Amino acid sequence: MKRIFPMSSWAIALGGLGAALVSPSLALAHYPLCSCEMADAQTVRCTGGFSDGSGAPGVTLDVISYDEQVLVAGKLGADSTLVFPKPASEFYVLFDAGPGHTVEIEHADIH
C-alpha cells in the first residue's frame, strides 16, 4: 500500500519560490509610459511604451476635450507614436493599453 504524505509548508514555499525564479516575467510587472511634446507650434507628437522597454504599436491614444468629446481617436503607429494637430480648446491625452495600463497627459503639460 502506497502512503501519501501531505506537503509541509516549507516545501510549498520552496515550490512557489522556484516558480517565481523560473518565470521572472510573472514576478516583474511593467507599467505604461507616455510622453507628448510639441513637434512644432501647431502639432503634437505623443510616444507610448512600457517600462520594460517595449513599444506600444496599435495601442489606443485618444485626444479628449474636458466635456468628454473625443477630438482625435487614434492608435499608435508602428513606431509607437501618434502625431496630431493641436486642438484649439483645452484637452487631455489618454493612452489606454487596458485596465490598469492608462496614462493621462494634460494639455498644459505638453511643451
Structure, explained:
Mean pLDDT is 84; it is low at 1-27. Strands 4-3-6-7 form a four-stranded antiparallel beta sheet, with no helix packed on it. A three-stranded antiparallel beta sheet has the order 1-2-5, with no helix packed on it. The chain is α+β, with helices and mostly antiparallel strands and 111 residues long. The protein has one domain: Immunoglobulin-like (Sandwich), CATH 2.60.40. It is 16% helix and 41% strand. 15% of the residues are buried. It has helices spanning 9-22, 24-27; strands spanning 32-40, 43-50, 60-65, 70-75, 81-85, 91-96, 102-106.
Topology:
Elements lengths: L8 H14 L1 H4 L4 E9 L2 E8 L9 E6 L4 E6 L5 E5 L5 E6 L5 E5 L5
Antiparallel strand pairs: 1-2, 2-5, 3-4, 3-6, 6-7
Task: Give a brief outline of the structure.
The protein is of the alpha+beta class. The protein has 2 helices and 7 strands.
Instruction: Report the CATH C-level class.
Output: Mainly Beta
Largest sheet: 4 strands, antiparallel
Average pLDDT for all residues:
84
Task: Output the radius of gyration.
Answer: 22 Å
- Write the H/E string, N to C: HHEEEEEEE
Q: Can you count the beta strands? A: 7
The strand order across the widest sheet is 4-3-6-7
Count of alpha and pi helical runs: 2
When the domains are counted, the total is 1
CA-based shape: globular
CATH-scheme architecture: Sandwich
The end-to-end distance, rounded to whole angstroms, is 76 Å
Say what the CATH topology is: Immunoglobulin-like
**SS content category:** alpha+beta
Protein name: Secreted protein
Keywords: Signal
Signal peptide: 1-29
